[in-house]
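Bit of a strange request maybe. I'm writing a small parser for structure token strings and I need a real example to test against, not something I typed by hand. Could someone generate the tokens for this chain?
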Amino acid sequence: MLKFIFWLLLLTNGALLALNLGALDAVVPNGREPQRLKGQIHPEQLILLSAGEKAVAPVAAAPVPAPPALIACTEIGNFPLAEAGRFETQLAALALGERQSRRNVDAIASYIVYIPSQGDQAGAQKKVAELRGRGISNFFIMQDNANPDLRWGISLGVFRTEAAARRQLAALKQQGVQSARIGSRSAATSNVAFQVRDLDPAGLAALERIAADFPQQQLRRCE
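Reply from user aminoacidic:
Good idea to test on real output. This should exercise your parser:
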């Protein structure tokens, strides 16, 4: 009887050992599925993280939008003083700071038809003789002018309008005076113009809305 119990225990222990080692998996599955677990492991896909690190999926960097193009200089004018004050009050709402400035405006006072400088008095006298030979007597030599293009030049008439100056120039061309040209003479006025620098499109639109209240003034680019 003892022998029977001994062999029974021995066989039972052997069966348990074989079961634990997986020798009987084909007959009695133990639920551990070692082959399936081996198939699920892909070491090449594992990433080792140090303590405190978190796995974060890569995020594509969003494109940085380009800054809006700035308009170097915009000018509006020319304002008489009374109207300039009203415009400047409205312009203050844009808070432009040092980007805003104003300048006095010179107006064209007259137009001159002239022959440029002949270099010196002798050259001017020679040109005068040529004019007389063509029957032209309404002229004078500009001796004291500070403008180097006019000093020792020949004035052939001063006019209040450009149209009158152009008529005189055309008449002189018909008389054979091909070197004559038109110039302008400026005089200071009490009018002012405003200049605004580095405006973006939104700022320009705001300036245009203000300028709409002053239809007599011109909005233009400046240097």
